[in-house]
């Protein structure tokens, strides 16, 4: 299975003024199961627009996104069905990804029914419980009747991951999926994502403005600036030998933010307040 952007571009009409916004230009990337690719870049660089094209939420204005070699716009019914199961989204929790009026069991169960992965109460419940278990929510039964507001931020993010996983996806497109979480919770969710890659062979298109996060989890990195992918390469190379001045600038900025030390360092040796 392969998901590819081929010189994909997206132009919007500007929200003000009526001109054109080239949100993404000529972007090419390849996502496969078992591979953790990251797209990194500052706010407004076009990351979310590229993610929405990869998820078939918006069409490309130029070039194409292809699933197993077929443009998303050209897929037949069977191919579309396979795409809808194989490629899942995990978005940032504050974006309101979970309906506040639905319990965890219902939210995930509906997805199972909608996609015909299982039918009948017991089978659906079994799938939901399995997914909750896979994301480390234990005991899974204790989460079925809980509402989003009864969960912590990290637990909600795990529910979102479970909702994606329940369809046995091959690739998860995660847009700023851990950006809102506290450092220690974030580390736990990142470990979970890496673990799911190893155990289930899931691949990721992981989108973030947070370079230290990329360093932890990615295999391959794409750097975006002003709608363009300006650099791509294996993580080790990107971090040790950036070729584009913008990548070097991002690394410098991340280093500066890192200076006070990691969360663990801070716990041991807190900075003076005030
Ligand atoms: N629906 C839209 N209409 C007009 N402009 C948009 C729309 N969506 C995104 N943009 C613009 O496209 C650019 C890239 O946005 P986005 O993909 O959200 O960047 P990022 O996720 O990297 O912050 C921004 O200039 C943004 O204002
Ligand atoms: Mg974004």
Automatic annotation (TrEMBL):
Please tell me whether the keyword Transport is annotated for this protein: yes
Query: Which keywords has UniProt assigned to this entry?
Result: ATP-binding, Nucleotide-binding, Transport
State the superkingdom.
Bacteria
Q: Say yes or no: keyword Nucleotide-binding present.
A: yes
Among Gene3D superfamilies, the record links this protein to: P-loop containing nucleotide triphosphate hydrolases (3.40.50.300)
Matching Pfam families: ABC_tran (PF00005), oligo_HPY (PF08352)
Q: Name one GO molecular function term.
A: ATP hydrolysis activity
For this protein, the record's SMART domains field holds: AAA
Against InterPro entries, the record matches this protein to: AAA+_ATPase (IPR003593), ABC_transp_ATP-bind (IPR050319), ABC_transporter-like_ATP-bd (IPR003439), ABC_transporter-like_CS (IPR017871), Oligopep_ABC_C (IPR013563), P-loop_NTPase (IPR027417)
Query: Membrane-spanning residues where?
Result: none
Q: Which residues form the ABC transporter domain?
A: 3-251
GO terms for biological process, alphabetical: peptide transport; transmembrane transport
Concerning its family, UniProt says: Belongs to the ABC transporter superfamily.
Q: What's the protein here called?
A: ABC transporter domain-containing protein
Q: Which organism is it from?
A: Microbacterium album
């Amino acid at each position: 299975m392969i998901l590819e952007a081929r010189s994909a571009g997206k132009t919007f009409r500007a929200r003000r003024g009526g001109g054109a916004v080239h949100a993404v230009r000529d972007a090419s990337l390849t996502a496969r199961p078992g591979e953790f690719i990251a797209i990194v870049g500052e706010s407004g660089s076009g990351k979310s627009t590229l993610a929405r094209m990869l998820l078939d939420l918006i069409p490309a204005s130029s070039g194409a996104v292809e699933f197993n070699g077929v443009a998303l716009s050209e897929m037949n019914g069977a191919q579309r069905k396979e795409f809808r199961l194989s490629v899942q989204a995990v978005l940032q929790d504050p974006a309101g990804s979970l309906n506040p009026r639905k319990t965890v069991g219902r939210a995930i169960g509906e997805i199972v029914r909608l996609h015909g992965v299982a039918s009948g109460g017991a089978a659906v419940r079994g799938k939901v419980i399995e997914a909750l278990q896979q994301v480390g929510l234990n005991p899974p039964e204790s989460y079925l009747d809980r509402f989003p507001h009864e969960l912590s931020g990290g637990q909600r993010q795990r529910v979102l991951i479970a909702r994606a996983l329940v369809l046995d996806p091959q690739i998860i497109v995660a847009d700023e999926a851990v950006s809102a979480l506290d450092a220690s919770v974030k580390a736990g969710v990142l470990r979970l994502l890496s673990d799911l890659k190893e155990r289930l062979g899931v691949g990721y298109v992981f989108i973030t403005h947070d370079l230290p996060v990329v360093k932890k989890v990615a295999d391959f990195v794409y750097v975006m600036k002003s709608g363009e992918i300006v650099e791509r390469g294996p993580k080790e190379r990107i971090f040790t030998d950036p070729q584009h001045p913008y990548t070097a600038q991002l690394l410098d900025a991340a280093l500066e933010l890192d200076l006070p030390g990691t969360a663990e360092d801070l716990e041991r040796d807190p900075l003076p307040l005030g």
